[in-house]
Write a structure and sequence with these properties.
Blueprint (H helix, E strand, L loop, with lengths): L3 E5 L2 E5 L7 E2 L7 E5 L12 E4 L2 E6 L3 E6 L3 E6 L5 H19 L3 E10 L2 E6 L6 H9 L5 E3 L2 E7 L2 E5 L4 E5 H6 L8 E2 L9 E5 L10 E11 L3 E6 L1 H10 L13 H14 L2 E6 L6 H14 L5 E3 L2
C-alpha cells in the first residue's frame, strides 16, 4: 500500500489513489486520508448521498462508492473497469464537497483568480461562464486560486480563499476561442465523446500558492446589457447560500447552522455583486476588462453600460 501526499483546499491529503490533478506536498501530518476499501451499500445510497451512522455514503452509479467520515477520511470502492480519471472526477468533486461540509468549511461553487494580491471569485449556475472568465484572467497573468470549488476560510473576520484544484475546465467552444488545441487536453469525463468539456492543467507558477484574502464575489447572470449591482442584506446572504458547492449535502453533514453563519459572515465582510451580461464569446474581452476595471476601482458603485 503506497500513499502520496498532496495539498488542496488548504488541506494536506494523503492518498492511496494517485491524484495527478493536484500538487504534491512535502512531509507532514495529514488532514485527510484517502484509501481504497469496501464501502457498504446502504438504503438510499443508490440515489446519491445517504447516512451510514455518522458517515456519509456517496454512490455514483456505475463509477464508485465513497464513504466520507469525520471530515478526515474518504474510502473509495471503484466499480470494476471504470477509468481512474472518472473515479477521480467524483472523488475530487462531490466526495470532497461532502467532506468540506463535514469540516464546517464554506465551499462556494465558484472560480477564483488573483488580482493585485487578493482573490476575486466568480460564482453562478453551471454554464454561466465561471471557468471561461477565469481562463481569460489566467491568460493575462493572473494566478488561478480555485476552479469550480472555492473554499472560503475566516481568519478572524477576514475571509480568505484556500488554493483549490489547479486546472480550468472549459467547454470546447471556449477552448478553441482562446486559441487552445483540444487534442492536447484530456476530456473531463473519459469515454464521453459527446461531452465536449476539457481539463486544462494550471502550472504551479500560475496557481495561487497560499491563501488569499477575498476581495469580492461576482454572481454571474445573463442580461440584456452589461451591469454590476451590489447585493445587500438577506439577498446577498441567500446568493452565497444558494451558490454553495454541493449545498444539498449540508443537511446530511449536519451543517445547516454553521453554514448559514458562514454565509452571513461572508456577506458582512465581502461585497457580493450581481454581474449581468449578454452571453457571447465575442464579448469576453470587453466584459472581462470592465470587470477588472471594477475590481481595481475600489468603489462599491453600481455599473451599467450598454452593449
Amino acid at each position: 500500500m503506497t500513499f502520496r501526499d498532496y495539498s488542496v483546499f488548504g488541506l494536506r491529503v494523503r492518498s492511496e489513489i494517485p491524484l495527478p490533478e493536484l500538487f504534491e506536498a512535502g512531509a507532514g501530518a495529514a488532514d485527510v486520508t484517502i484509501r481504497l476499501g469496501e464501502v457498504p451499500v446502504v438504503e438510499g445510497s443508490d440515489s446519491g448521498l445517504a447516512l451510514d451512522g455518522d458517515a456519509l455514503i456517496l454512490h455514483i452509479f456505475g463509477i464508485a462508492r465513497f464513504r466520507i467520515s469525520g471530515g478526515d477520511t474518504i474510502v473509495v470502492r471503484p466499480e470494476p473497469g471504470v477509468p481512474d480519471r472518472n473515479v477521480r472526477l467524483y472523488l475530487l468533486g462531490s466526495a470532497f464537497g461532502a467532506l468540506l461540509h463535514q469540516r464546517g468549511l464554506l465551499p462556494l461553487h465558484a472560480n477564483a483568480i488573483e488580482v493585485d494580491g487578493k482573490a476575486v471569485a466568480f460564482t453562478g449556475a453551471s454554464g454561466s461562464g465561471k471557468s471561461t472568465l477565469a481562463a481569460w484572467f489566467h491568460d493575462r497573468g493572473h494566478r488561478i486560486a480555485a476552479d469550480d470549488v472555492c473554499v472560503v476560510r475566516f481568519d478572524s473576520k477576514t475571509p480568505h480563499v484556500s488554493p483549490g484544484l489547479p486546472r480550468l475546465r472549459l467547454w470546447l467552444e471556449a477552448l478553441e476561442a482562446m486559441g487552445r488545441e483540444p487534442s492536447t487536453y484530456a476530456r473531463s469525463y473519459a469515454g464521453a465523446q459527446n461531452l465536449e468539456k476539457f481539463d486544462v492543467p494550471v502550472a504551479r507558477e500560475t496557481s495561487a500558492g497560499a491563501d488569499l484574502e477575498l476581495e469580492a464575489v461576482y454572481l454571474l447572470d445573463r442580461g440584456e446589457r452589461f451591469a454590476i449591482h451590489r447585493l445587500e442584506g438577506i439577498e446577498a446572504a441567500e446568493a452565497a447560500y444558494a451558490n454553495t458547492y454541493r449545498g444539498q449535502y449540508i443537511g446530511a453533514a449536519k451543517g445547516y447552522l454553521s453554514h448559514w453563519a458562514a454565509s452571513i459572515q461572508l456577506v458582512q465582510s465581502t461585497p457580493i455583486y450581481r454581474l449581468e451580461r449578454p452571453w457571447g464569446l465575442d464579448r469576453l474581452e470587453s466584459d472581462c476588462e470592465r470587470v477588472l476595471e471594477h475590481v481595481r476601482s475600489g468603489t462599491l458603485a453600481d455599473v451599467v453600460r450598454r452593449a
